[in-house]
Amino acid sequence: MSLGPYAMRTKILVKDKEVCCPTFNDTTDGHRCPASKTARSCNCTPGGCTNKREEGDDFLTEKEVVDVPHVAYMGIGFGRGDPQNANPFLDTLTFNGQPSNGSSSSYCQGYVITHDGLYLGLNGQITNNFAWTTLSQQNVGGYRDWDTPPMIYKINNGSKKNGTILVDTGIPNSYFTNSPIAWATGDTFELSIPGNSQLYKLKYNMAKNVNYAVVGSPNPMQPNTFGVSSKAGYVNTGRKLLNCFDIAYDSIGGNFGYRYLDAVGCSQYVTVAPSAAPS
Fold it and tell me: Which superkingdom (predicted)?
């Protein structure tokens, strides 16, 4: 695969069907829906699937399988226990026709995602005004990988909880540990994310008392829904956080960066403080 001056090697996972599995647990169920959890009749929304079967139906022998002909996602994440060559944006073979070893005088391995597009490779100009947070290093069979960035979150006036954040570039929904199934009007969800020179506090206001859903909010970062994640200490923001931030990943030094955009509507929900310690 070629993109500008870069030539990359890309692995492709083809998915052409989905199975309805309302109570799937990614911690205990592995990568497949157990037969005991498959449902013959489901109601699937962005917040998840619920079982609609009639009492007495034999739903263990049939699966709700649907074709998905228009899937258009490509994973570019990190911190999943995979070597960096599993990420097409990091498995760069050549730069300007020359073999790439991850860095040079004009190129350092990594990427930036902005409203104007994406940039492969980092330099001082591309990463200007980013606030960086240092990532913990993983060892993946001798290969280098980095943990996802740290954060602190809380619901309403509850206790603060430590965890990690995934800024998703694909889905419009958010998932996090201990998410309430039903939100009440006036509930709040707050995230604190650190950088080396800035601390960002993000606030989400729940606008309607419906299961999973958050609708009618003017917050540019507000996801379509808040779903429950079974991963401990984890928040997936969904892609709408990118309405207020650019993000960057330095895969050589192990840093993740945020660049606040101060776009229309963001200032009401983002507090910027000169601190690197979340609170």
Answer: Eukaryota
pTM, full prediction: 0.73
Reported as type and span, the H/E element at residue 201 is strand 199-205
Rounded CA-CA distance 110/144 in Å is 13
Domains and CATH numbers, the chain: 17-67 (no CATH), 150-273 (2.40.70)
> Residue 164: which of 173, 153, 151 has the closest Cα?
151
Residue where the block lists tokens 């401990």: 232
* Distance from C-alpha of 53 to C-alpha of 43, rounded to nearest angstrom: 10
CA distance 45 to 227: 11
Give the whole-angstrom CA distance, residue 91 versus residue 8: 6
Is 149 within 8 Å of 245 (Cβ atoms)? no
Of residues 36 and 265, more confidently modeled:
265
Q: Is the distance from CB of 207 to CB of 151 less than 8 angstroms?
A: no
pLDDT tens digits for range 79-94: 887 777 777 787 776 6
